[in-house]
Design goal:
The complex is a heterodimer. By secondary structure, chain A is mostly helical. In chain A, 67% of the residues lie in helices and 4% in strands. Classes of the chains: A mainly alpha, B alpha+beta. Chains A and B meet through helix 3, helix 7, strand 3 and helix 8 of A and strand 3, strand 4, strand 5, helix 2 and strand 8 of B. One iron/sulfur cluster (SF4) binds next to helix 2 of chain B.
Chain lengths: 325, 243
């Protein structure tokens, strides 16, 4: 497939936003059960949610560039019964809304205690909103992954690993950002987030490698034989029916040389996994914001390459019909 | 349930592209807006087409065969392109099984084109909406046309009658009979899309003759030879019959 920059930015940016929100909420959960110190509502949760929102809005803006007719985008919520894209279109604004609400409740201290457990644990409004929003964050990851995983003849995508990769890669980048953010506001949670960022990044490494491993061994179900229905070992296309380009020759071929295709794979494997892990480990030692920020920047840039590769690697069966001019 | 479709006979298609041009001509003048061409007279021209004719070579020289292969939307009975559409712009008509795009609802997200294994959909670069073969829905029901012309433009244009049009779910229709009698098949059956359009394979007419059938059994000399010419004054068969 031809990787569209709008979709590359959309999926990576909202992934960061979702991951950052999950990080914030994990911190809050730990503090409710008194494992971690309570953070400042204002500067930590309020600002953190705002940061997550910035990424989500960025993703939304990127998505607009993907549409031919963005002014009709509201229509795309209609087919949620059948279309994962439609479901994503519903869940994304809902998630953004609750993230904003979560941040506002914290920022303006409109956070009444709803009930208490055994005198020790308090459940306040933000915890409930955050709990619901956590569900939405995962639902959004699931929708995004399923948009690709549900097309069964795009065999590189049609695997549960696609969904898992979206969850893990998004969360990893979000936790990396949370680490840098915690260092920036001077919170004690730097080590906590850093440790999780490393763990999730390693988990993502395993699942992304698993999908690369799987895709390297794919047996394609379609062939030129089934495409034109003629049983012969040697079928060669002599003409695709036109000489100039068409939608079919633009949309489904990535157009990069085999060599740059291969090297981009190694580039993202290095930039998304070992480099950020090394940088975060180093940064944690010093509690240094610049190193942690660099870790996130490298990982995010790596994810842009990863997403490019994700699209480029998918081999659409229609390409069988467009082998020769 | 009615399912209109095309049946394309690869045995007689000569690859003349008449269906391609007549399709473009009819549909670009249609009420749904033109099928845009970008840079038509420049370098790198491109345009929207519903139908293409491709050419394949089968076999190894000298035993090769050239197959011309027209390709358009197959109006699948289980179209994977329809459920993925977020707006409902892509739909399959209940009454005749034609798969259509509502150009007023489409947001041009291209998701349906990813979900068609045949590459039958094209985004119109000018209108920015998804387009595909409509089976000439705007002419097959048009009562101002004589009945014989209420067929898709490509079918009418084909000089070798390689394209048949009809209801594939009606057992005695011309298309069903053609599929049944001539081994009609579907493309990429592995994806369960159940295309309504069928293709008829290349066919050769052969008979089997054994050697003893070439030798006259009543030949007393067991030899094939020319019979002697009749004498000049003898009657020949030509003299006594009147053919
Ligand atoms: S050929 Fe493609 S566009 Fe046409 S109905 Fe089938 S899946 Fe949809
Ligand atoms: S491009 Fe149009 S018809 Fe296709 S899925 Fe998107 S909205 Fe539906």
């Amino acid at each position: 497939m031809h990787p569209a920059f709008s979709v590359i930015f959309l999926t990576t940016l909202i992934g960061v936003g979702q991951g950052l929100f999950l990080a914030l909420y994990t911190g809050q959960l730990y503090s409710v059960v008194n494992v971690l110190p309570v953070q400042d509502s204002h500067s930590f949760y309020g600002l953190g949610s705002l940061l997550a929102l910035v990424f989500l809005v960025g993703g939304l803006i990127a998505s607009v560039f993907h549409l031919g007719r963005p002014e009709r985008a509201w229509r795309s919520a209609a087919q949620w019964r059948t279309s994962w894209l439609s479901r994503e279109v519903i869940v994304l604004p809902a998630f953004m809304g609750l993230t904003a609400l979560y941040g506002l409740v914290h920022y303006f201290d409109m956070n009444p205690v709803l009930f208490r457990f055994s005198g020790e644990f308090t459940v306040d409004l933000s915890l409930v909103i955050g709990g619901i929003n956590t569900g939405l964050a995962f639902a959004l990851f699931f929708c995004t992954g399923m948009i690709y995983a549900c097309i069964k003849f795009l065999q590189e995508w049609a695997t549960p690993l696609t969904v898992l990769n979206y969850v893990l890669l998004g969360s990893a980048s979000g936790f990396s950002l949370a680490t840098a953010f915690a260092a920036y506001v001077g919170s004690e949670l730097v080590t906590f987030y850093g440790a999780w960022a490393i763990i999730i990044t390693l988990a993502a490494f395993i699942s992304r490698s698993a999908s690369l491993f799987r895709n390297a061994r794919i047996k394609y179900k379609s062939s030129l034989r089934s495409a034109i229905g003629i049983r012969h070992a040697r079928i060669e296309q002599k003409s695709r029916g036109f000489m100039a380009g068409s939608f079919n020759t633009r949309e489904y071929f990535h157009g990069a040389s085999a060599q740059s295709f291969r090297s981009l794979k190694w580039i993202f494997l290095v930039m998304v996994f070992p480099v950020p892990v090394a940088l975060i480990s180093t940064g944690l030692g010093y509690g240094a914001f610049p190193v942690l920020a660099l870790a996130f920047a490298v990982q995010y840039t790596g994810l842009l390459v990863e997403r490019w590769f994700f699209f480029a690697q998918a081999n659409h069966p229609q390409n069988l019909y467009y082998q020769t001019v | 349930m009615k399912q209109l479709a095309l049946v394309i006979d690869l045995n007689v298609c000569v690859g003349c592209h008449a269906c391609v041009t007549s399709c473009k001509e009819w549909n670009t003048s249609g009420p749904a807006g033109f099928m845009s061409d970008m840079n038509p007279y420049d370098a790198d021209p491109t345009g929207t087409f519903f139908n293409r004719v491709q050419t394949f070579e089968i076999g190894v020289y000298p035993n090769t065969e050239t197959v011309h292969f027209p390709k358009s939307c197959l109006h699948c009975e289980d179209p994977p392109c329809v459920p993925v559409c977020p707006t409902g712009a892509s739909y399959k008509r209940k009454e005749d099984g034609i798969v259509l795009v509502d150009y007023d609802k489409c947001i041009g997200c291209k998701y349906c084109s990813w979900a068609c294994p045949y590459g039958a959909r094209e985004l119109d670069e000018n209108q920015k909406v998804m387009k595909k073969c409509t089976l000439c829905v705007d002419r097959i029901y048009d009562e101002s046309l004589p009945e014989s012309e209420r067929k898709p433009a490509c079918v009418l244009a084909c000089p070798t009658s390689a394209r048949l049009f009809g209801d594939v779910n009606e057992p005695d229709s011309v298309v069903s009979t053609a599929i049944r009698d001539n081994g009609g098949y579907q493309l990429m059956p592995e994806w369960g899309t159940n295309p309504a359009n069928h293709y008829l394979p290349r066919r050769k007419t052969q008979i089997t003759i054994h050697e003893d059938e070439l030798i006259r059994v009543d030949n007393p000399l067991k030899k094939e030879r020319q019979l002697p010419m009749p004498d000049a004054d003898e009657q020949t068969l030509d003299d006594i019959t009147s053919w």
